[in-house]
Amino acid sequence: MSSAWTSSAARRVLAVAGLTFREARRRWVVVAAFVMTLGYLGIYGTGLYFASKDIMSVAGGTGMDEIALKMIGAQMLSLGLFPSSLIVGLVAVFASVASISGDLDSGVAHAVLTRPIRRSELVLGKYLGLAFMLTVYSLLVMGAVVAMAVGFVDAPTDNLVGALALFVLEPLVLCAVAVLGSTRLPTLANGVLCTALYGIAFIGGIIEQIGSLIASEVMLNIGILTSLLMPADAIHRRAVAELLPPAMLLDPAGGGVSFSASAVPSGWMILYAVLFPAMMVLTGMWVLKRRDL
Amino acid sequence: MIIRTEGLTKVYGRGKIGNDGVSLSVGEGHVFGFLGPNGAGKSTFVKMMVGLIQPTSGRAEVLGQPLGHVAMRGRMGFLPETFRYQAWLTPRELLAFHGRLLGLEPSAVSEAAHRVMAEVGLAEEMGAKIKSFSKGMQQRLGLACAMLSSPRLLFLDEPTSALDPLGRRDVRELLVRLRDRGTTVFLNSHLLSEVEMVCDSVAMIDHGRVVADGPLAELLSGPCEVEISLAGPWDAADGAPLGGASIISQTAERVIFGLPTEDAIPDLVAALVAAGARVVGVRRRKRDLESLFIETVGNEHRE
Question: Is the separation of the CB atoms in B153 and B32 below 8 Å?
Fold first, then answer.
């Protein structure tokens, strides 16, 4: 393969990625998600604002110590993280489920794929365009949640950069699965499958956390197995743990451990999750290459 | 030969046959008409040629390259039957995108875009949203897009299906201009009169098999009918040597002869005159593509 071919291949991938990004911004599912996200962030921010006023007045009266205040802040941030990344994850799925199948159904893909472009270049371009949009979107959403929690209730943040990187990785994983599905499945079936996988990962995560609390080997393994199938929830749990180490989430009232941070996925699982999108996209390339269109 | 296939066969899932041993050759610079009833396998063949589906067996070369050759597609244009383009783009943006896929420089794309849009009569619509286009305009845009790379070989799958009669005439003229410039056009169509007007060679396909193939003039030659008007009665029993001609029908002043080829017409007329018949009119009843099509394909369908 000559370098001239490689660079022209890169240009074609970027052409597809650019168009995909522009198209994604226009899709009503993305626009609707954006509006909903703003609404959600508004409610979360308002809640934090009033919470902070109450905490301050209560703390002022009782002389609550700083550690306890930090813990409350951490708890409030932790409360905001899960729904935020759930929204981001669903946007990732629904922005990507039709990426290839939609163009095949409409016939747009036929005009494109009869150009001197490889099918793998189309798949890669589609993924990169969506991934770029989702990176920007998830950074904005998760960044806003963290910023508000820090600003209003002085939430602690441990490894902020690492956590944000993982929060970005989560939609990229979901997007890659949806792109793979769209190379073979009809859009609707793909959407159902991806959402189901996301749900399975979430339930697997809960099973793993309970398993970790009651020291059940079987439950832990079920959790790990579902994370291998779909690492989105494992990434989320690790991201939360990076941002708010479990020690910070001990209930100041002396109760148990916050739900979302127990059973922190290992570094190996995170490495797997980093490689996961590439595996999905490569599989998607392979599937589309073999298909009659 | 710009296209050459040998025994090209496509069997879809569940054993449905798309193409069954199609062997075709298309010469450079021709307008080639590929005819057949709906579902006969026309689109299957074109989709194999442009690399959208893979043949089950057989061999094929397009522009001197095996099927699926990626770089070769830069010298080829394709208007799909179900043409659809990103409706939210303008033609300028659409053509710029396709230009990038073709590896053209932006300035070259812009120039080519204006050229092809003018060619299909959409020069004024460069900045309008494609979604505002009528179906006919979208089809013209599809033609423009297919011509963007100044291809040596152009595949058009039912290029006039959405056009009104004027639009069809425009496309016919466009095809002739393209041929005059040396472009080979592979035209899938079931509009026989249209094919007859522009094509140099044709192939007919039915149930996935090629049932007729050759230069149009050759296919339309062969047995023909001549209607001869006479002043005064004439009796075949007079014993005029009629060569290979047979009388199909006869009235007092008009006889219709069947002849093996058109070349036999002058001899027939000469023989009649020599036999004393007073010939006042000779009208060749042209064998057209429609009658050929019905003879070749229609009979089988009546089975």
Answer: no
In A66-118, alpha helices (H): 66-96, 101-106, 108-113
Low-confidence ranges of chain A (pLDDT < 50): 1, 251-261
Helices (H), A158-265: 160-182, 187-213, 217-229, 232-243
* CA A206 remoteness from chain centre: 17
- Give the integer Cα–Cα distance in Å for A108 and A126: 13
Residues of A in contact with B53 (CB under 8 A): 292-293
pLDDT tens digit sequence for A29-50: 778 888 889 999 999 999 988 8
**Structure ipTM:** 0.84
State which residues form the domain around A81. 2-290
Query: What gap in Å lies between CA A75 and CA B133, rounded to an integer?
Result: 55
Specify whether the CB–CB gap between B63 and B5 falls below 8 A: no
Tokens of B118: 């003018």
Choose the closest CB to A12 out of B51, B83, B100: B100
For chain A, what is the domain count? Answer: 1
| Cβ under 8 Å to B: A residues 87-146 | 106-108, 110-118
DSSP H/E element including B205? strand B201-206
The residue whose two tokens read 């449905």 is B16
pLDDT in tens, B41-96: 888 999 999 999 999 999 999 999 998 888 889 999 999 888 888 888 999 999 99
Output the six-digit token pair for B209: 């098999």
pLDDT in tens, A192-211: 999 999 999 989 988 988 88
